[in-house]
Task: inverse folding
């Protein structure tokens, strides 16, 4: 059998992170080159095309919605009017994917905008927000105990994506999230940066969608509260209190007038397949995924405008290719089949993986597990692993055993309150019930002096989503070799399990 080797991972990273690929933007030439490269590597590794309907590529229909200059958003009550300025006071987009949005509607304060029967919490109880503008805070009510919204860990209810989805399901015309540093856990500049045009999943016919999904600054929120005769901190306190119910925001009406440029884009998931050796179990499969996209060409930093995404995620793609090669060369092969999927549009909100999970080449119920690979350290081997989501699956004991065999200590997610579980491609699989997790390196480096991990962590954080995320010949691929071997072994183990693992509930 072909053994996975770090020095075989290196050239893929060198190529995928090259300036010629222009940061592998979705719908851009560099992104298409990356997808073609991975398909060619899959073919030469001995995989078969595995996309639904045949071929290496699964087209993912997306649209980019760009806000035209001069969008207008204002609030009015009792003859007083607040006019907000784009980027300084508000940002947002439209999920209707139409050329314009116009609304003039009553504002309803919906607290955290959560409807979670399993926690006895319903901010929308008894409220009718159809055609109205909902105003809310992101995050979830503060934890009271381990069982309430899973304690310190953020649940999906706390994510801003959920807030918009729930508001749309309720028929609201628009949703405004009031930014505060504690509820968002990041500053306004992060929200503001997300205001640039982003691809979204193409809206299906009749699917409810917000005409405007936006954020306003804390300052704008404070003025809005004052306009309604309230105080922002009182609203937040109310939102955090059990028994909170949605209520009109004074007599405030919110008015929007915006135009959009809507563009269809073509992008694809790359899918390779290896059939299992057991005639019956070959109808079930293990999925390996890694996102190939990165941010493309953008704002220059120190004269460099190419966001190469070497770490994020040329490393994961390179490992995916070498795990695929090893799998295809195994004799005999594992009992179940395997899919190797390089997904698109992770950076725009896990869109490629979500499309694959909702349109899989075999029924989702026959996918035994999905293992995701995203961003690996080029500074050598470690003694620990963080398997985000593995503890929510029924085969966690198997995973623990495998970690032991690979001499890796399993560490919990160091910051569960940041909601990492919902921010990586494995979540796309989990939300349709597939047991899924991400295989991440820990930070306990082998044979390195004290303080090395902290120093490296700082270095990597500074390059995160910056043009400085570039490949270097000095990179050490032994840690990637270690984790590709570990991930591969996990996949083999799961592919040979007697029984399909139990489905999961990703909330
Ligand atoms: Zn990223």
Result:
């Amino acid at each position: 059998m072909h053994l996975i080797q770090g020095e075989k991972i290196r050239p893929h990273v060198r190529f995928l992170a090259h300036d010629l690929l222009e940061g592998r933007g979705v719908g851009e030439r560099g992104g298409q080159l990356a997808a073609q490269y991975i398909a060619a590597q899959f073919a030469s590794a001995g995989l078969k095309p595995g996309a639904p309907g045949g071929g290496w590529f699964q087209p993912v229909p997306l649209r980019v919605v760009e806000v035209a200059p001069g969008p207008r958003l204002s609030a009015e009550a009792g003859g007083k009017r607040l006019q907000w300025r784009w980027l300084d006071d508000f940002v947002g987009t439209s999920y209707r994917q139409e050329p314009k949005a116009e609304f003039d509607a009553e504002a309803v304060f919906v607290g955290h905008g959560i409807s979670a029967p399993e926690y006895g919490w319903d901010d929308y109880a008894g409220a009718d927000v159809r055609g109205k503008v909902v105003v809310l805070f992101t995050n979830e009510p503060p934890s009271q105990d381990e069982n309430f919204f899973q304690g310190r860990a953020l649940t999906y209810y706390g994510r801003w994506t959920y807030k918009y989805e729930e508001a749309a399901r309720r028929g609201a015309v628009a949703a405004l999230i009031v930014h505060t540093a504690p509820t968002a856990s990041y500053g306004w500049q992060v929200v503001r940066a997300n205001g640039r045009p982003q691809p979204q999943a193409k809206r299906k016919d009749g699917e409810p969608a917000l005409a405007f999904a936006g954020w306003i600054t804390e300052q704008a929120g404070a003025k809005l509260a004052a306009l309604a005769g309230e105080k922002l901190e009182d609203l937040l306190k109310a939102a955090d209190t059990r028994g909170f119910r949605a209520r009109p925001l004074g007599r405030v009406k919110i008015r929007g007038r915006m135009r959009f440029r809507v563009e269809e884009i073509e992008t694809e998931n790359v899918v390779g397949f290896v059939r299992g050796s057991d005639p019956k179990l070959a109808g079930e499969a293990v999925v390996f995924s890694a996102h190939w996209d990165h941010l493309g060409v953008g704002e220059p930093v120190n004269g460099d405008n190419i966001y190469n995404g070497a770490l994020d995620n040329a490393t994961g793609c390179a490992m995916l290719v070498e795990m695929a090669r090893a799998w295809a060369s195994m004799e005999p092969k594992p009992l179940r089949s395997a899919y190797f999927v390089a997904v698109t549009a992770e950076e725009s909100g896990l869109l490629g993986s979500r499309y694959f999970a909702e349109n899989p080449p075999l029924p989702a119920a026959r996918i035994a597990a999905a293992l995701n690979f995203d961003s690996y350290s080029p500074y050598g081997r470690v003694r620990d692993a963080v398997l985000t989501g593995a503890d929510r699956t029924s085969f966690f004991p198997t995973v623990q055993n495998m970690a032991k065999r690979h001499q890796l200590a399993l560490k919990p997610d160091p910051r569960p309150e940041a909601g990492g579980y919902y921010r990586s491609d494995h979540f796309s699989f989990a939300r349709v019930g597939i047991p899924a997790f991400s295989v991440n390196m820990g930070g306990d480096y082998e044979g390195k002096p004290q303080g090395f991990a902290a120093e490296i962590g700082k270095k990597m954080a500074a390059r995160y989503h910056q043009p400085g995320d570039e490949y270097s010949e000095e990179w050490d691929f032994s840690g990637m070799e270690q984790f590709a071997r570990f991930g591969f072994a996990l996949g083999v183990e799961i592919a040979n399990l007697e029984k399909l693992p139990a489905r999961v509930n990703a909330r």
Remarks:
- The longest strand covers residues 247-274.
